[in-house]
């Protein structure tokens, strides 16, 4: 099968096209013929070597942790899915990723793709959508009436976090550039703070929840907008215990745990028109296509999700 691999850490040019063997599946897995995948910051962070201590993979590495496609083979213990099913998943974090024509996926990580959803839309949801869901629902326990600040609302996680928060009846503020204000309000944001001109902490007070996807000074400043007992969850960097104690805030770092049943929640929200996905750019499945997609993701200014059309 065709795959895009890396044999060393480095810039986007280390992404190389290669023909390799199809993966073999275990009894509780399916072999998924991938029709689309998507780009997430973890992809280029692994490629650049930033996560080599956390994820000590052996080379060659196939990056990519979003998949949508059709089941072409299933293990003997797989009972909830059949060959021919349209499914999507955030597969387990291994060195056998989704920049490939086929990948092996554990049954418990799969969800059916809604009939009305394209493979490209499906591939754009799992990692970013599950991250947003777990941060807001599992970690902070979002509820109706909460005031929630979501940083980088136009990014991959942000677009889903805004919609999930609104589905729970929260008031949602987000930070973004001026050009994205109308777009983010169309997703449900109640207030958009232009981070290029304004200090969000001067406009927002007494918030219950902050979802931080930026870290650094933005994370530190975020404590100022939270009420005592408020919650900050970061996917950028572990929060400072000292800062959290200073502001009497519950602050945590979250690393995604793939879960098929939660992905089904997102699929149900899509079908009930509570959730839509925004595909900013689509690239072809090639060495050049993946290199261009990584370059765009690394700018931190892509709107919505970056998708790779595999088949």
TrEMBL record:
The keyword Oxidoreductase applies. It holds the Pfam family ADH_N. Residues 10-308 form the Enoyl reductase (ER) domain. GO terms for molecular function: oxidoreductase activity; zinc ion binding. Keywords: Oxidoreductase. The keyword Manganese does not apply. This is NADP-dependent oxidoreductase. It comes from Aquibacillus salsiterrae.
């Amino acid at each position: 099968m065709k795959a895009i691999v890396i044999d060393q850490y480095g810039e986007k040019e280390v992404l190389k096209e290669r023909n390799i063997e199809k993966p073999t599946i275990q009894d509780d897995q399916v072999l998924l013929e991938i029709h689309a995948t998507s780009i997430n910051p973890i992809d280029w962070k692994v490629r650049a070597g930033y996560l080599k201590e956390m994820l000590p993979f052996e080379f060659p590495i196939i990056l990519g942790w979003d998949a949508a496609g059709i089941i072409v083979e299933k293990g003997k213990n797989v009972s909830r899915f059949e060959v021919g099913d349209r499914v999507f998943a955030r597969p387990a974090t291994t060195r056998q990723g989704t920049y490939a024509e086929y990948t092996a996926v554990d049954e418990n990580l799969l969800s059916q793709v809604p009939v009305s959803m394209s493979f490209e839309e499906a591939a754009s949801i799992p990692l970013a959508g599950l991250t947003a869901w777990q941060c807001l629902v599992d970690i902070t326990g979002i509820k109706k009436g909460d005031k929630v600040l979501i940083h980088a609302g136009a990014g991959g996680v942000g677009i889903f976090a805004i919609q999930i928060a609104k589905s729970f009846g929260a008031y949602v503020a987000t930070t973004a550039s001026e050009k994205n204000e109308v777009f983010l309000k169309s997703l449900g944001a109640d207030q958009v703070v232009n981070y290029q001109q304004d200090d969000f902490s001067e406009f927002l007070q007494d918030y219950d929840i902050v979802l931080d996807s930026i870290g650094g000074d933005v994370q530190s400043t975020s404590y100022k907008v939270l009420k005592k007992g408020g919650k900050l969850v970061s996917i950028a960097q572990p929060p400072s215990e000292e800062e959290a104690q200073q502001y009497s805030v519950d602050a945590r770092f979250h690393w995604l745990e793939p879960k098929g049943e939660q992905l089904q929640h997102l699929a149900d929200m899509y079908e009930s028109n509570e959730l839509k996905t925004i595909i900013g750019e689509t690239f072809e499945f090639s060495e050049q296509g993946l290199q261009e997609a990584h370059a765009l993701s690394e700018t931190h200014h892509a709107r919505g999700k970056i998708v790779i059309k595999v088949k």
